[in-house]
Amino acid sequence: MNQIEEIKEKLDIADVVSEYVQLKSSGRNKFGLCPFHKEKTPSFSVNSELGIFKCFGCQESGDVIAFIEKVESVDFPKALEIAAKKAGVELIKTNSAEYDKNAKEKKLVVRLNTLSATFFNYILVSHEAGKKAKEYANKRGLTKEIIEKFNIGYAPSGYENLKKFLLKKGFHESELIRYGLLVSKGNRVFDKFRSRIMFSIYDEYGDIVGFSGRIIDNNSKAPKYLNSPQTPVYNKSNLVFGLYQAKESIRKEGFVIITEGQMDVISSYKVGVKNTVAPLGTAITDLQLKKLKRYAETFLFAFDNDSAGEAAAFRAFKIASELGVVSKGITIPDVHDVDELIQTDSKKWQKAIDDAQDMIIYLIKRVSKDVDLTTIDGKVKSANLILPVIASVSDSIRKDYYLEELSLYLQIDKSILRKEMIASKSSNQHGEFIKTQSRNVKKDERRKEDYLLAILIQYANKVGRMIKLIEPSLFSEKDDLTLFTKIVEFIEETGGKETKV
Fold first, then answer.
1. Cα distances (Å, whole numbers) of residue 393 to 322, 399, 400
2. N or C: which end of the chain has fewer CB within 10 A?
3. Is a pLDDT exceeding 90 seen at residue 73?
């Protein structure tokens, strides 16, 4: 018996399918609504004896590994890996030594993170050192169910709590430093996370790949959030907080709600809106949205009510438009963010979701808060902000519809808006060409970039979330872009504030 046969032998396909589909027995088979197409009458059949599934509606069929491959939107090797994990079978890799080395390293990091999460959770739930943190968790509405579902914990005060725990497990200090659990400073090595509520960061397959730690003392001078550094398994630009917990609900509901923060996701989950996620990092990336597109073709965005939230909205809608998904905006009434809205009145959150508006209407209304649309200057400013987003829409019918809506709101002829959109796009492309050709001779532009970087470095503690407003494309030199990226990472990890041991 080879490994694939062993995995299929150990797994009951009905048990695996039941993780995604509600099944009911009917004779020798079990039936449910197909996860691969929309239907009202169950036509999706599973037979445990034969180890196969078959949908009589869309004709999808196969064994347990094929089901995982399809439902998780992964290739065969990844589906096999997921199936092996469910079956408790250790896969024997026959690939190159380099592949084995990378796989072992990733497995080590996940094991370290899993043990650390267990430690943090124990401190919060069962240890005296977590008493204050538990009071904070109760105050924020972090119920026992939520703490368990999201594997929330607490990193206690003191410098060697996690260090001692992991060293006793046989790990090396150098490993713990390399993978972001310890910090080396001078001749001291100590815990990176201290006095923080710890949120475990999962990938979509259920592996803990990193952490985000939040201070519980709002008067502290320490940064509000502290995140894991990049590791072989943690790349924030490709990770989505809450996706592992939300993916079944996303498939069931047919759309995903994208918020800005982790507490937005958790609060939403707590009140029953479980198809909610948030990006890791300061801004939504195309990699994150591409990942979400595997699970749903409709995105509902809920951005904070501030200038950074507005900038995030334009960026997110532009990326989503390029991907060809349906995008809508959720207006958060009266308060700053989703978490605050739910704390105030959870019913208003569901109403806000129900009232989500098409992307173009949402953007127009968002812009109109700061712009007087009765004036020509206001109309021009609004058009200049919104037309680049419409230009990025891949579907020509949808693009025409958006232009029509913008025309109605601004009371500007659609043909004029179309010409302006085309001219603007052409101008941008021409501008990029000129910039590329003249980088080496425009020293004054370099001086501006250097000056901007100098300001960001000097006043990092005052920049905060406004860093989202600066586009990386402003920097023409690779070294400048690298430095800007490091500044962004510093502000994300420290809030721009100096950290002291």
1. 5, 6, 10
2. N
3. no
Report d(CA 309, CA 312) in Å as an integer. 5
Q: For residues 384 and 407, what is the distance between their CA atoms, to the nearest angstrom?
A: 13
Nearest to 21 by CA among 37, 9, 8: 37
Alpha-carbon distance 325 to 437, whole Å?
35
Residue with tokens 């250097």: 450
Most confident of 84-93, 434-443, 450-459: 84-93
Measured CA to CA, the distance from residue 282 to residue 96 in angstroms comes to 37
Sequence-ordered alpha helix ranges (H) in 88-160: 97-126, 131-139, 144-149
Q: How many CA atoms lie within 13 A of 432 on its CB side?
A: 6
Sign of the dihedral defined by the CA atoms of residues 146, 151, 152, 156, in that order? positive
d(CA 134, CA 125): 7
Tokens 């509606």 identify what position?
57
pTM of this structure: 0.72
In this structure, the strands spanning 52-55 and 61-62 are antiparallel
**pLDDT tens column, 397-446:** 989 999 999 999 899 999 999 998 888 766 554 334 333 333 443 455 55
Q: Are 45 and 31 in contact (CB under 8 A)?
A: yes
Pull the structure tokens for residue 398.
Answer: 């949808």
